[in-house]
């Protein structure tokens, strides 16, 4: 094997070894409502999340930082994410009958913070 080939293999191995480390640190996911899901389905999932689901929905109540925009989709996104972050380590999934999806972009907006728990 030539020195150049050995070098290429060595560099490739080094790059491969870096990947798990990097993605572990950067693999942050939030759970939000899927835009394609009808509002009535999102509303039902939102009610469940804030009720039996155990999400803390205090921030989407009137006059709280995540009340606006006051849409079913935005409120469902907040509730889904709160539920998911709170219970993902206990096996909860970001599903909500197909009404939710994970994203890797922080959905927080002016004053409304979407938790991410490592
Ligand atoms: C819900 O969140 C609010 C604001 O972050 C906090 O003050 C409150 O104690 C929480 N309620 C529960 C039941 O965890």
UniProtKB/TrEMBL annotation:
Chief subcellular location: membrane
Keyword Cell membrane part of the UniProt annotation: yes
InterPro entries: X8 (IPR012946), X8_dom_prot (IPR044788)
Gene3D superfamilies to which the protein is assigned, alphabetical: 1.20.58.1040
Pfam families found in the cross-reference section: X8 (PF07983)
Keywords recorded for this protein, A-Z: Cell membrane, Disulfide bond, Glycoprotein, GPI-anchor, Lipoprotein, Membrane, Signal
Subcellular location: Cell membrane
This protein's record includes keyword Disulfide bond: yes
Signal peptide (residue range): 1-25
Lipid bilayer topology: Lipid-anchor; GPI-anchor
Domain spans labelled X8: 29-114
Protein name per Swiss-Prot or TrEMBL: Glucan endo-1,3-beta-glucosidase
Species assigned in the record: Actinidia chinensis var. chinensis
């Amino acid at each position: 094997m030539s020195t150049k080939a050995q070098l290429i293999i060595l560099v490739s191995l080094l790059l491969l070894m870096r990947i798990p480390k990097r993605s572990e640190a950067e693999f942050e996911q939030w759970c939000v409502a899927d835009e394609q899901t009808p509002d009535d389905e999102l509303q039902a999932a939102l009610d469940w999340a804030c009720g039996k689901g155990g999400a803390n929905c205090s921030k989407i109540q009137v006059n709280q930082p995540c009340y606006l925009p006051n849409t079913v989709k935005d409120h469902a996104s907040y509730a889904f994410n709160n539920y998911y972050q709170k219970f993902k380590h206990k096996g909860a999934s970001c599903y909500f009958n197909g009404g939710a999806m994970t994203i890797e972009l922080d959905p927080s907006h002016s004053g409304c913070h979407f938790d991410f728990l490592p």
